[in-house]
Amino acid sequence: MTELTRDVVIVGAGAAGTTAANELKKAGLSVVVLEARDRVGGRLWTDVIDGAMLEIGGQWVSPDQDALKETLAELGLETYSRYREGESVYVGADGASTRFTGEMFPVAPETERVIAEITERLDAMVAEIDPDRPWAHEKAAEWDAITWDAWLRAQTDDDEAVRNLAFATGSAMLTKPTHAFSLLQSLLMAASAGSYSNLVDADFILDKRVVGGLQQVPLLLAERLGDDVLLGHPVRTIAWSPATGSGTGGVTVEADGDLRVHARYVILAHAPVLYNRISFVPALPRLQHQMHQHISMGFVIKVHAVYDRPFWREHGLSGTAFSPYELVHEAYDNTNHGDDRGTLVGFVSDRNADDVFRLTPEERRERILASLSHYYGAEAENPVVYYESDWGSEEWTRGAYAASFDMGGLHRYGADVRAAVGPIHFACSDVAGAGYQHVDGAIRMGRLAAANIIEAARR
């Protein structure tokens, strides 16, 4: 048994964990980061598949993500704009594809009017939401008791308008069926990006990428920690005692590899759905037991298709494509910086993702590429590299992109989702307000957990 003593042990070497560890170290506290995987990064993962560099996990940077942009600048990482020159493609209910420019989909004038009106209504509601305290809104209980789908259908009987409005927070972000989460959860998703309009504007939310891949953020942060990052050490037990009048409490963390760490504090910097993989001694309070049962991951397949060239550009297409009727509900030009080849990235989410995983890999690939061909033509069916990011099968993630509350859960438990329990602190993108579900939120939560511990340690 290897025994270590530190001020703080961090569980998880993603963006939140490595950020927290660096902040704590700067403040003079000793740390160790325990990571279950054999790599640093968590839900950030840049890898080479069949000779193509792919962003298997998170990848985009938007203008409102100040914490991420500060970190990129501090680490000396460069960004480049997503390719967006040319026309976008929309596939309607009749299966016909239409090229268009601008933010509004090429729908019937009446449907366009309805979408614009409801978007304006949503922007006004979102403006009243504090993303760090959505449960504090006077209508929070009411908005958390109605599903996102039911609220939209109460606004209009235009099905195409509902589908296009719904998918921005449903299929595209929370990656759950729209009847499975509340209006309040949807408003939080929009508030975390500044407005509902921001969330549906691909040119805003998917603005830039990092040269060399976004996983460099946790990798470079981990480099600064040196031997204080230990891979392949899943944490199994946390014995903890709360602070008392005569002491600060503390934790003893046991991990695979015959490792035991004694520390004053622990930060759980991983997805909330993994909290139950750890045995807590004593058990966590009943509030946490109940709360954690009301949080679940969404599910989305990120599809990477690499071609010998970005052929869609030759046809005047930007690569941006949408349809609430297609298996691949959205797709983009994801060509790497300085790469002569062309890459498309598409997304298949919630029930559609469930359904295609009931097929053989060959059938699934055929169905997905056929859907891409509805946007880009027959050439889309013949990539030189094809890969599916399936985070639902990752033992230490179990879904994507992040976790959200079920119906009524946000109003009921949101105020407690990142509150410390004695010496146990929580930090991940899943519990963020601003930057919720994004790397920006992970960095914000890593900073916050570190700041809270630094303050507590100085008392």
Automatic annotation (TrEMBL):
The keyword Oxidoreductase applies. Keywords: Oxidoreductase. Residues 16-454 form the Amine oxidase domain. This is NAD(P)/FAD-dependent oxidoreductase. It comes from Microbacterium yannicii. Its cofactor is FAD. The keyword Membrane does not apply. The lineage of its organism: Bacteria, Bacillati, Actinomycetota, Actinomycetes, Micrococcales. Belongs to the flavin monoamine oxidase family. InterPro entries: Amino_oxidase, FAD/NAD-bd_sf, Flavin_amine_oxidase, Flavin_MAO. PANTHER family: AMINE OXIDASE (PTHR43563), AMINE OXIDASE [FLAVIN-CONTAINING] B (PTHR43563:SF1).
